[in-house]
Specification:
The chain has 9 helices and 14 strands. The chain is an alpha/beta fold and 276 residues long.
């Protein structure tokens, strides 16, 4: 999840700075450590075979950041994608191969070493999920949650700044275990808006339980610019009965935010109830 600083400057008088869930560009000089951060062609081929975009892939330790806010682990790359897709209207709800299993189930969430607004936002995001009365519920705990929200501080690069990132469920049916939130002042400002931070955590929690971006087939739907398909290799599609046939601009899993407090719309709730 990222903020486009260039777009944000032009809109700041009317709304909060626009947010893009897209990949930060790394404009670092070549050094002798390049081999530690570069992504090999074999890894990119593996990423593509799982149905993810290989544009602007970045290595983070042993993991790979794709599509702006999604971390793929070595275990993810070792799995074969056989998942169908959830399709809603002209924009689609997509899930990954793995989902959270052993339902009904309660997933604990904790926040570590972050300002109070992040704790309050996580609590609010948990309440939004629980209000849907799904078989998958969430519970805030003081530490050691199954999903742990931690901070990092990273400034802008190439006109973008990363707001947060997360990953997808494990093959054993557990949620992704970590959400990283950016504490750099240029991410949320010196006085972060509670609703804004809540919507980002809510979005990243969606990835943790298996949702991909709603406008997966065309990120330009929410991000603007040229058509950009995140990739769908090896992934089928399942239409959810009862959903409308017109474009749906308000999903909590759209690739790019409008800079405000975006929560579940009616189609999001259908998709969540379908899975959980």
């Amino acid at each position: 999840m990222k903020k486009n600083l260039l777009i944000g400057i032009g809109l700041s008088v009317l709304i909060a700075i626009s947010v893009l869930f897209s990949c930060t560009k790394e404009n670092k000089p070549q050094t002798s450590t390049a081999s530690k951060t570069e992504v090999s062609d074999d890894v990119k081929k593996n990423i593509a075979s799982l149905g993810f975009s290989t544009d602007d892939v970045h290595r983070q330790g042993d993991n790979y950041l794709v599509e702006g806010d999604i971390l793929l682990t070595p275990a993810n790359l070792a799995e074969a994608s056989t998942s169908p897709t959830l399709r809603i209207a002209d924009v689609e709800q997509y899930r990954t191969t793995n989902l959270v299993k052993n339902l009904p189930r309660t997933i604990t969430v904790s926040v570590s070493n972050l300002p109070t607004v992040y704790l309050n936002a996580a609590t609010a995001a948990v309440a939004r999920y629980n209000a849907l009365n799904l078989t998958l519920k969430f519970q805030m705990v003081s530490s050691g949650g199954a999903i742990q929200i931690i901070g990092f501080n990273q400034g802008p690069s190439g006109g973008f700044i990363t707001l947060g990132s997360s990953g997808f469920p494990t093959s054993s049916g557990n949620p992704y275990s970590q959400i990283q939130m950016n504490t750099n002042p240029q991410a949320y400002g010196s006085n972060p808006n509670l609703g804004y931070v809540t919507s980002v955590i809510q979005h990243e929690m969606g990835h943790c339980i298996g949702f991909r971006h709603t406008d997966y087939m065309n990120r330009a739907f929410s991000c603007g610019g040229a058509r950009d398909n995140e990739g769908s290799a090896g992934i089928g599609a399942i239409n959810i009965p009862g959903t409308p046939t017109k474009a749906d601009a308000g999903s909590w899993m759209l690739a790019c935010s409008n800079g405000g407090d975006r929560t579940f719309n009616a189609n999001d709730q259908i998709a969540l109830n379908y899975l959980y």
